[in-house]
Amino acid sequence: MSEQDEVETLAVAVAELRPALEAILMVSDEPLATVRLASVVGHRVEEVGAALVALASEYTDQGRGFELREVAGGWRFYSRPEFAAVVESFVLEGQQARLTQAALETLSVVAYKQPVSRARVSAIRGVNVDGVMRTLLSRGLVEEAGQDEHSGANLYRTTSYFLERIGVSSLDELPELAPYLPDMDDLEDELASVAGLDAPAPPPEAAPEAASAPDPAPSPAHHHSPHSGSGTEPDGGTEVT
């Protein structure tokens, strides 16, 4: 018998369904699956699922300042988007460190191009992202996802905690921003440069000299591509407010 079947056959409900669900969700710091909630309140899984959907609809109809969402495989209360400015002001008041713009950009690249290596992220952003990636890893927003079969480089992806923090159930719900990012096929030269694999450029052909032409100006210094990854972030992805 499956875990769900066992939950569905509980004989005695331990509390009135909707108030019990609200009480549990109010104190939870993570999304709770329907099966887990059913096991706690002692109601059948389908009854709990229907109650959660009904509660979410009621909160929306009543214009509450919060809403009930199903995200990352579970249910959790969230403040409504229209009150984001007020909530942000309260949450960030007195906070010393938060993700920098550089860290947010790096996280966005990982989210839309995952699984992706650090070298590829560096090529897209045009800077070395090692410090920022360490920050994202330490905060649980990014995790390792194996190795590239060709280069052996470590690959990275976003975590379920990332989905929870932005309030979506899956990556399919991310905004349509991927078309605005560079195509990976167009970055092979930059990636080779990051890996130190660029071949030396052939010497320029000598141009025929004109009799009255002045002395040629010195050749300008070679500039790396802005996506060469030769830059370095000034910090590890946090800023002090």
UniProtKB/TrEMBL annotation:
Pfam families reported in the protein's UniProt record: SMC_ScpB
The keyword Repeat is annotated on this UniProt entry: no
Superkingdom to which the source organism belongs: Bacteria
Record keywords, A-Z: Cell cycle, Cell division, Chromosome partition, Cytoplasm
Stretch list, region Disordered: 190-241
Membrane-spanning segments: none
Protein name in the entry: Segregation and condensation protein B
UniProt source species: Nocardioides flavus (ex Wang et al. 2016)
Taxonomic placement: Bacteria, Bacillati, Actinomycetota, Actinomycetes, Propionibacteriales
